[in-house]
Design a protein that fits this description.
This protein is an alpha+beta fold. It has a single domain, classed as Alpha-Beta Plaits (2-Layer Sandwich), CATH 3.30.70.100. About 35% of the residues lie in helices and about 30% in strands. The protein has four helices and four strands. Strands 2-3-1-4 form a four-stranded antiparallel β-sheet. A hairpin with a 4-residue loop joins strand 2 and strand 3. The longest helix is centred in the middle third of the chain and has 17 residues. The model has no long low-confidence stretch (mean pLDDT about 95). Keywords: Monooxygenase, Oxidoreductase. GO terms for molecular function: monooxygenase activity. InterPro entries: Dimeric_a/b-barrel (IPR011008), YdhR (IPR014910).
């Protein structure tokens, strides 16, 4: 069963193309995390928020990522970090074209 991790936090920027340029190496490193399948990066410059929607193979790997990522963001002065983990209902998600079986 796959698990979604939803993360958001306040951030002053960068956003858009500048965010993509600044965080390319971070994005590449996320691909190496145990149990990681994919991430959608989220941002809202108007409310100064950023985060992501992740898919992990197991709840345990999602939980370990939350711990590591929260500590990493704290090192950047970003706190608090809001994180929620959800089980994925694969049958319904596939009807709506969600890619959960990677």
């Amino acid at each position: 069963m796959a698990y979604i991790l939803q993360v958001d936090f306040k951030m002053d920027g960068p956003f858009g193309d500048e965010m993509a340029e600044s965080f390319t190496e971070l994005a590449k490193s996320i691909n190496q995390e145990k149990g990681f399948l994919w991430k959608i990066w989220t941002e809202n410059p108007e409310t100064k928020e950023a985060g992501g929607i992740y898919l992990f193979q197991t709840k345990e790997t999602a939980e370990k990522y939350v711990d590591m990522h929260t500590n990493r963001l704290a090192g950047f002065g970003i706190s608090p970090v809001h994180a929620k983990i959800f089980e994925v209902n694969s049958a319904l998600t596939e009807i709506n074209k969600g890619l959960v079986n990677q």
